Amino acid sequence: MNDPAAFVAESIERIRREVPEKAIVAASGGIDSTTAALLVERALGERARAIFVDTGLLRAGEVERVTEFFRASGLRFEVARAADRFFAALEGVSDPEEKRRRIGAAFIRLFEEEATRFGTDRLVQGTIAPDWIESGGALRDTIKTHHNVGGVPKDSRLRLVEPLRDLYKDEVRELARHLGIPSPDRQPFPGPGLAVRVNGPVTPERVRRLRVANAIVEEEVERAVAAGTIPRPWQYFAVLLNTRTVGVTGDNRVYGEAVSVRIVESIDAMTATAMAVPRPLLKAIAERVTRELSGEVVRVLYDVSDKPPATIEWE
Length: 315
Description:
This protein is of the alpha/beta class. The protein has 2 domains: 176 residues, HUPs (Rossmann fold); 106 residues, GMP Synthetase, Chain A, domain 3. 40% of the residues lie in helices and 19% in strands. A 5-stranded parallel beta sheet has the order 3-2-1-4-5, with helices on both faces. Strands 6, 7, 8 and 9 form a 4-stranded mixed beta sheet that branches. Helix 2 packs across helix 7. The longest helix is centred in the middle third of the chain and has 23 residues. It is globular and about 70 Å long. The two termini are 30 Å apart.
């Protein structure tokens, strides 16, 4: 994309050709889907309906943050509460690929219902190039199935509209700045949410633990960035590991879970480097996580793997 203004004009015309009447938009609150939603709103006006789904797999305060973000971006939207649906779909599932497929299917079934109410069969997604590249197909290996690509059921009646399909993250951010979207450089958050940061079974209780740990990582990293201790990373988050480990609380032996901290630098998410962060930052994170989740999480690790060979997300 060389010229954002030209891309916007071309996208509006293409969306109008692909959507003769109405469309719903899967709006997660991330830069990709928000950019796609604003393009569709410019193209269709009130014939577009953006839907933000509260899956129960979101970060602490996510619904409130996304609500403020959409309002600041000038986007009209609705919130669909669907935590029970997503936890039911994930019950007993540990395999990462199966998680993504089930989450993708749960999203699509919900959007099919919303589309029927709105009188359309068009669903707009913020799919970008790394999503379909990493999902495999043709001569490409599957690195990981993105829920908005490989997670779409083959029997879905919805016709997908993907105005950002050929762009990379840095290009989407440039486009978002052109559209006046606030904070286009904030860190990405996976569409499947905390489900792919909870290794092993996904339960409300394990998601609760991860939500607390993840908030601590974000708060401590943002405090370090504000103090000038580290540059702003591409992504920084916690992962709840599928392992039990021995710890000590007071004079008692406890058997709790472990958290891994992931802080990486990147340009377009196709490659990434684990950031060399100061030890005091890691110590602050570890002390807060084990204190605020006392007896539940007893060990905190730091992930030093680059992409490749690792991916940014653990699952």
